[in-house]
Amino acid sequence: MNLVDDALVLRSDVLLVPINDLAPEVRATFTFEEGDYALTRRHGRLPSQIIDGETAALLSLFRTPRTIVEAVAINSRALKKDPQAWFDELLPHIGAFLNRSILVPAGSEEQNEIAPSFSGGERVGAWEIGHCVSLIEDSEIYRVRDGARDGALKISRQAMPFEQSLFGNEADVLERLDGPPAARLFDRGTHDGKPYLVIEWCRGMDASAAAAHRRHVRLSLLDLACGIADAYAALHARGFLHGDVHPRNILVNDDGAVHLIDFGYGAAAGEPPRIGRGGMYYFFEPEYLAAQRQGIALPATFAGEQYALGALLYFLIAGRHYVEFRSEREEMVRQAETEPPLPFTKRDLPPWPEVEAILARALAKDPAQRFPDVAALAEALRDVRAAAVAELRETPLSDVAARFAVERLRDFARGGAMFATGFA
Questions:
Q1: Which distant-in-sequence residues (6+ apart) come within 8 Å of 155 by Cβ?
Q2: pLDDT-derived band of residue 414, with 50, 70 and 90 as boundaries?
Q3: Are 302 and 362 in contact (CB under 8 A)?
Q4: In which band, very low, low, confident or very high, does the pLDDT at 330 lie, cut at 50, 70 and 90?
């Protein structure tokens, strides 16, 4: 396209939010100045970006299709700037917005907010679509059925060769694992040139939601941490790395069973990786970040995944990340490489020295100082749980607690207060 003459438009799913409109705890993660805006895309994978008010004003002009020259002319008059100098200053930023699909050609399919590609009742291969479960810019997930089998259909939004895609890599890993701690692969293929997988449907919620349900019961949080650590220990024992550790890639059933999902970046240890690294900066190990800064592509390792797991478990137990991460990528990298995990008291939580010591060891900056493997980490967590259970059993029930139990049982008995008044 011609950057000067062709009309551009701001995608309809782009949000421009004044920083001052964000919640205080969100603002605390950014370095910003008065008048700045947060720029983000619904359904996008890239993190939010902070832009100044002048750039936000320019982008807002593209709510109506315009050429770059027209928008810069209007913007420069409003700001009382020299048009040519302002155009030269803005052009690199506009190029970045084009690369991120923030600005797109007017009239193109890209300008509209993405929508599910399939409706209920349609078929992909042998599978009947139920409903859309997840929708992001590059892939979609649907609940599907084939006779008695319930599955999750994951399909690319773009046509591409199957074997060279994340879908091909995930299919290879799932076929070799063929079961827990991963969900089983039911089917693989392409539909209109778009690769897809159908994976066993796993009931439950992601790890963040599971932790939120347990937030005020520490023993229950410890049960969750043990289950997740055991799942990763089992995966590593079979010689595989997950490669993309974060809460949404862990499903927890009502009975506490854990399934690991999304193995697009998975790999067998000791084999050349077919795909690069995935993941979030909150969970990257410091040695990977240090190598990345030097232009070295460090593959996933068991020790590195232990660090990611430590960061994840800290987040689930404490409700916040192990350090107060800033939103700027360079600062996040510095923090991950240098800052130790904050004590729980700095997170407004009661101390939990036994668990904090385990997490601190898993989060050691030097891989040699971590646990020998994730199985040892899981065993340490189970030891803490066993001691906590023993302590609970040995603690006598207080008179206040006994009286509370008797009163509540009376309320819920036939003819009790709850039968007369109902729930509040």
A1: 117, 124, 139, 140, 141, 142, 191, 194, 195, 196, 197
A2: confident
A3: no
A4: confident
Task: Using pLDDT thresholds of 50, 70 and 90, give the confidence band for residue 250.
Answer: very high
**Of the candidates 132, 149, 138, the residue with the CA atom closest to the CA atom of residue 183:** 149
Q: Name the residue among 140, 235, 133 with its Cα closest to residue 182.
A: 235
Q: Give per-residue burial for 148-174: e unless 16+ CB within 10 Å, then b.
A: eeebbbbbbeeeeebeebbbbbbbbbb
Tell me the C-alpha distance between 312 and 294, whole Å: 26
Rounded to whole angstroms, the Cα distance separating 406 from 114 reads 55
Q: Which residue would you say has higher pLDDT here, 259 or 423? A: 259
SS3 assignment, position 51: strand
Q: Annotate 206-275 with DSSP letters as a single string.
A: EHHHHHHHTTT-HHHHHHHHHHHHHHHHHHHHTTEE----SGGGEEE-TT--EEE---TT-EETTSPPSS
The single residue listed with the structure tokens 């799942």 is 231
Query: Residue 397, exposed/middle/buried by CB under 10 A (0-12, 13-18, 19+)?
Result: exposed
First to last CA, the chain: 62
Peptide bond before residue 299 is cis, with ω within 30 degrees of 0: no
Residue 26 has pLDDT above 70, yes or no: no
Q: How far is CA 282 from each of CA 286, 313, 321, 372, rounded to the nearest angstrom?
A: 10, 12, 7, 22
